[in-house]
Every structure is written in C-alpha cells, then in structure tokens.
Amino acid sequence: MLSIVQTQSVSPVFVGRIRELTTLDAALARARAGEPQALMIGGEAGVGKTRLIEEFLARSCAAGAVTAIGGCVEMGADGLPFAPVATVLRALHRQLGDELATAAAGLEGELARLLPELGEATREAHNETGRVRLFELTARLLERLAADRTLVVAIEDLHWADSSTRELLSYLFRSLHRAHLVVVVTYRSDDIHRRHPLRPFLAELDRMRTVRRIELSRFNRAEVQAQMAGINGSEPGQALVDRVFERSEGNAFFVEELACSIAQGCETGLSESLRDLLLVRVEALPEDAGRVVRIAAKGGSEVEYPLLAAVAGLGEDQLIEALRDAVGANILLPTADGDGYRFRHALVREAVVDDLLPGERTRLNRRYAEALEADPGLVRADERAARLASYWYHAHDPAKALPAVLAASVEARRRYAYAEQMRLLERALELWEDNPPEIRQAQRPFDYAEVYPACGCDDQALSHLDLLAETVVAAHLSGQRERALAVIKRALRALDGGADPLRAAWFWTQRGKLIEGLGRGDGWAELSRAQELVRGLPPSAVHADVLAQVAGWSMMHEPGPEAFVTAERAVELARLVGAEGTELHARLTLGWLKVDSGDVAGGLAEMAELCERVTELGNVSVLGRAYVNYASALEGVGHSTQAVEAALKGVEVVRRFGLSDARARSYCNLAESLLSLGRWAEAEEAALAARRLAAGAKPRATAASRLAELALGRGELDAAERELTVAREHYGTHDPQPQYTIPVLRHTLSLAAARGRIKDVRAALDEALAAGFPPGAQRYAWPLLLSAASAEADARGLPAAEPDRAEVLGRIRTAARRLPGRLPVWDAHARLVDAELLRAEGRDTAELWAEVTAAVEPVERPYQLALAQYRWAEALLAPGTDGADRQCAARPLALAHAAAERIGAGPLREGIELLARRARLPLGEPLPDNEPEPAEELGLTPRERDVLRLVAAGQSNRRIAEELFISPKTASVHVSNILAKLGVSGRGEAAALAHRLRLFTAESATAAN
Predict the structure, then answer these.
(1) Coil, helix or strand at residue 283
(2) 852 and 975 share a domain?
(3) pTM of the model
(4) Are residues 144 and 197 in the same domain?
(5) Is 276 helix (H, G, I), strand (E, B) or coil?
(6) Pairing relationship of beta strands 211-215 and 37-43 according to DSSP bridges
(7) In 10 A of CB 997, how many CB atoms?
(8) pLDDT, the chain, mean
(9) Distance between CA 241 and CA 305 in Å, rounded?
C-alpha cells in the first residue's frame, strides 16, 4: 500500500475569479448601504464554487460583516426540510446569542420550527397560510438581524435542496426590500437536467431583476499553472502543467486531485474513469481509515462523530486515528460546528457510495438506523425523524420503515415542509402494501385538528383512507394539485360502496377545491355531491365543514336567501360539534350575507367582532379572510373612509402574522377604497404593493384591475390595456365571480369608449347584461352602467352610434331599474345613470344636474361629484342660455376643475378646461383676451379642422375628398397629420376625442353627414 505523503492539496493562493469577486464585493457594498443582495453562483462540480464562497466570506468578515454558511444535503430529498436555513440560523445563534433571541422576540413559537433552540413550536396551522407565515417571519428575523449590521448568508449545493428550502429562498428574494443583507447561493449546473426541480426555480429567479446569476467557468492554462504552484509551493514544469491541464480540462478539483496524486508517486496509476480518479486517494488510505470513509459516505453529507463511532464499532483511539488519516488526506473535514465530519468534496462521497456493494449499502443503513434507534441523542432532534426514516427505508425493512416514515411525515408537516411530507407519505403508501395487517393496525391515526376531520376514528388504528387523506392535504398545500387529485380519485374509488359517507364527503370537498384551483370548473358539482352525502347524517365536523364551504361558494357566486340559510346552519352545526375554525369561517360568510341582505349595521358589526376575535386567537386560517372581507364589505356600502382604516389595520395585522397573500388582498381593498375617495396616487402605491406581495393568481389579477382603472381615469390608455390583459389572464375563465368579471367588463367598456369604438362598448355591455347582476353585485354593476350610459352620451351624434341606439339605452334603463339603490352611494349612482341616459337623448337639463350634484355631494365619491358638477355647468352653458346661467356655471365648473386636478383625472380636467375657455370663464387664472379656439390650440389648420369634422361624422377618405374638392390621397395625408397632432391611434379615437372636447356640435357633425 502506498504511504500517504502529506501534501497541501488546497492552494493557499486564491487563483483567478477576479471578475466574480468584483461582483460579490460590489454586492457587499450595496448591502452595507441598506440594499439587500441575492446572488446565484453556478458551475460544474469541482469548478471552485466553494473556494470562491470561502474567499468571499473571509473578505466579508474582514470588512466587519457577520457571516453564516449552510449546505443542502442529499437527505433533503428524503424529507429533511429547511436543512441549510436551519444550519444558517444555528450558526447565527452561536455567534449572536442573545441578540438573535431578541430579534426573534414574539416570533419564537413559529421560528422554532427552523431553530428548536428558540423554544417550543406553536401549534401548526395546516393550510396555505401557516407555511407562508413561517416564510414571512423568517424574512422578518433576517431583516431585524441585518438592521444595524451587514449580514452575509451563504447556502451551498442548492441542487440538493428540498422543495421547502427552494420556496423559502424564493420568498426571501421577493420580499426583502430593506436590510444590510447578502444571500449567496451555489448550485451544480451540470446536474440540472431537464426535469431537475431546480430548473423552474432558476427560471423564476431569472425573471427577478433583484437576483444576479454568476456562472463559473473552468480555469485556463495560466490559472491551472498558478493553482499547481500554490499546491506544491513551487513553479511546476511546463510539461507537467500541460499534462494536468489536458487531463483536468481546467476543472479546479481535478487539477488538485491530479497534482496531489502525482506528488504521491501515482504517475501512471490513474484510471481514465472519473470514479477511479476520485477514489485514488481513498484506496490509498489505511484499512481502518478506508472503512470509516465508506461508513461516513453512507451516513449522509455530514455525519456526527458520536453516530459515526456507534456505527463504525472501532475503539475510540482506533477511530480517531482512522479519522486523522482521512482528514490528513483531505478526504474528510470537520464540520463547521465541530461536532462531526463531512467530505471535502461531494464528488468523492458520491464515488465512494457508488463503489459500495448493494448488500453493503443495506447493511450500513441498518446499522445507522439501529444505532440511532438505540440512542436518539446521537443526532439533533430536528433531524432525527427524517434520518431514521431514510435509514430504515434504505435498509429495506418495511416493518421498521413504516412507523419511522410516518413519524417523519408528521415532523415535516409540523415544519410546514409539505413537499417533503408528501414524498414521505407516498413512501408510506408504498410500504403499506408491503406490511402485514398486524403491522398496519399498530399505526396510530394522525392528529387531524384542522386537516382531516376525525370521522369518529380517533381511537382506532390508522386506516389506508387516513393515509390517503393526509397525502391529499400535503400534496395540495405543497402546490402539487395534480398529484392530490390523483390520490383523491384513488380514495373515492375505495369509497365507492357508500359505506363511509363522511369520509367520501370530505374527499369530494377537497376535489371541488382542486377542480377550481386547476381551472377545470368552479367546484360546485363536487360540493353538491359532498352536501348530498352528509344530508341526514348525525352532526359532525365534516358536515359543518361541507356546509361552510357551500355557504362560502354561494357568497361569491350566487348570494341570496339560500346561501344565508346555509351559512346559518353551518354556524349552528360547527358550534354543536366544537369545530371553532369552521364556525368562524361560517360566521364571516354570514356577516357578509347580512350586509347584502340589507342588515348593513348587523352584518358589519358581526364582521368587526370576528376580526377582533380571530386576532385575539391568532387563528391564521380565518384571520386573513376576516380583515379582507370586512374592508370589502365597508367599501361595498359606500363607507370608504372606514374601509381604508379597516384595510390598513388588516395590512398590519396580517403582516404581523406573516400572511403575505392576505396582505396582497388587503392592499387590493385599500387601492379600491382610495380610488373611490379620489386619492389616486395612494391607490397606485397600494395596488403596486399588492402586486409585489401577491402569490396567487386572483390577487395579482385584482391588483392589475385596480391599476387599469387608475390608468383609465388618467387617460393612459395603453397602460390600461396592458393591465387589463394581465387581469384577464390571471382571472381566467373557469370561475366567473361577479366581483372579478363585472369590473373587468367595465374597464373594457371604458377603454373602448375612450378609443371611440362604440361597437366594442356595446359588446362589453351585452356580455355584462347577459351574465346578469346577482344580489350583492350592485357595487360593481352601478359603475358599469354609469360608464355605459356616459359612453352613449359622449357618442351622441356619431354615425356609428346611431344604429340600435334607442334599444341600447332602453336596456341600460331596464338593468338600472332592477338594481337596488337603497344606500346613499348607490342612489347617487342611480341618479347619475339616469341623467347620463337623458344626456344621451339630448334631454338633460341644468335643473336635473343640479339635483344629481346634490345627491352625490354627501357620499364619498369626489370623482363622480366632479363629473356631476361638470355636467351641470355644461348644461348651464348650453347654446341659448343667458348671461345669468353663465355666471351660475362658474362655481360648479371651478369646483369640478379643482377636484379633477387634485385627483389626477386628466381627461376630465381637459374637458372642464375646454368648456371654461369656450365660455370665457376663469378657473383660477384670468383668461387672455385672444384665447384661441380649441381646435386651433391643438395645432390643427383650418383645412385639418374641416377634415376632422368629416372624420367625426364617420366619412371615408373618398367622401371627404368629394366634400372638400381634394384628391383622396390629399385627404389621407390630412387624416394622418390629424392623428399625429391629436396623439391618437385611429379614426375612431380621433372622432371620440373631437366629440369629448366638443370641437364640433352634434348638429354640425350630423349636417356633415
């Protein structure tokens, strides 16, 4: 056997990577200024990612930063979630001690899932909010730690990361906006095959402008020479450099291995295969050291010394000597915490594992499992269950593996690691078939508190259906909805005989949620099936949950008396069986339906009380929905100032509880109420905040809808169209809820009106009227009808608007008569709609608009008030009015102008200013004596004004040429010039602008026609 020559296999000289270090140093400088940084470092195995990280961390420490490093381990694929994040937090806890505990104050119960040293974890909430809450609180902890110091966190080997770690990192990269923090992550790029789970993660990061990617290339010949000189302490000969460069192809690790092997005398003993190259130094170890290395390889990426000692079976002195040989050969290294050992390079470990015989692997896994079972204290408590499950499973012992895997799945669920939990449960389903009945019957059921209602099985053995139910929930919460649906189908086939209607009802309810989430329907058929199954059965938690789900569905889709009765029944049943979470959900639905039914005060009081109650309880499964629905209900009855207050409180409360999607929905509510109050700049900030936080499609769509409404009010038509496209895409077509569909149709209608496309206006109106306005939809329907009536009034005189005009106005009137207007805000809208319809017919009067203005003044709608004042002034200044009317118009016109300017309503302000110029009425500044005509002010020549008048009348270029005695080509040139001067994209938009600015009277346009 060759003796080990103690050579230095890691170069003390850092070679190359100047460009990469410059990028990292710049990121550190920006972080020190308070701008969080995220960097991804990719490269093939052995290219030098770890060495670069070590160099950067050393430089960061020298600059005064606090650093921590964590590594992903292959065990993560077997259910060890958040391993690198837990390692980082543990390292920070060792360095900062009480400072970390202070930063975690108030968050300990949740963060203990990642760092048990913080204390006892709170009871988990098994829904989407619990997991996001953990992510949000982790972000807050890092923000607090990095508030007054620079913090550098490195996570290595992301290609081995569990799904939960990837999702947590994605959340951190999106949500950290102000902290002295650098997060650097490495991954092995040559391992990222087409179906590798890291591939979509990297694609997502590429869309984030805040995350930078660095790709490490291999060394060139000069860098290989510098590396070899650092390893050997002297300049190598050129022939040796050429040989090593050719064999290593510039891979830093292979350079190191070759240089070391050659220094040890292995001139010709290296195999051409990569595995043999990696194993050459392992094979050169003494017998005991080689044995310990093989045992360590099967234990995982890192192995604790006590566990290694228990499995190796060597005397302490003998084991220490073997480890000394392995460390001296640079095969093993002590772990960062000094409690165990790891391979210096993962490639070597992989080669050692691959070299083990199949029986040898099974035997080593069994020995690890037996040692850990005999003494659980050999590993950290937060890793014990996952490690034991993995060892027993790979030891091919189904009887031992099943309970271990089930225990590990419960631990993964406790940490909100649902993807890892699902993999463990699928492994349990596999093991279930391999175990005899007596082993299955020995397994105890899960604690279904909020996951899977008990169905009367608490004191019985775990059943196959219980296992399927837990798998469904884990798959659903981890975002693997297709897999959840497949498991549900399997369960429903097993329940086809009808012997267990409660369990069947539960599975049908989950199927309905998934069908809706996957865009394959609205979920009603599945909920109906569940409702049929529980009808006539004794009270149960399942029955209460089904009724609560049905009531909630009805509230959003078909509110009315039947939904009200269902919600009441759900509340009663939930109270009877003690299902408090279900009761709170049902009460919230009932409060909303009370508001819709006319009991505004009672419904709002119920919802306000629920907000306080769920905050006090910390019930995150209801808390987000409570504040979102309460603020929305206030806005729906016109209490916009109170709605803003409720939304702001909701934003703060759900932030405290780490519910980012509920924050996004609260910001959407806030934007809606601020738009109503004419605080458009603040509304834009709220909508952008919602977009930044939103994880789900519906909040993203709603944020886009708010921004579209804002852009329309400002006259930014291209921006409005972009946002409308986003809203439609995210809302989809599978779940048409009035709260989403009606506003989108209103914005579509308004955009078409602004561009002079009256046929498109009517098409959007037809679609809305065909769908109908269910009870409670008046808050969305009145603004739509107002937009439609205004569009018809503005298009009066346009030839394209004349066909079917009377019928369209009649349909708007009919729809308006069917809408309730009992509340002041909707009574005001009703009066606006009626007045606009009369304007569309040329029958509106100044007295009418004065009454409308008086009706709108008491409600919190400054834009609508400015519109009514503008119309009032316009009616007072109509042709044929006397001087007294002109003087009366000055005040409403000035008030409308001030409001439009304050709000930022560009088109409305322009219309008011044009009317003021025509009437020679000041709006704050004295008007000059030689005020130009509006068309002249737009830069139009007399001939272009004649052409525009005919364009507004719907004439073609040929007809224009005939009318003005010019050639069609000249007419075409005039039309092009007019479009450019007006800044519009087509003839229809030019005509609409001309009518809106009253450049020509309706009579003149008609005469031209």
Answers:
(1) helix
(2) no
(3) 0.68
(4) yes
(5) helix
(6) parallel
(7) 20
(8) 84
(9) 39
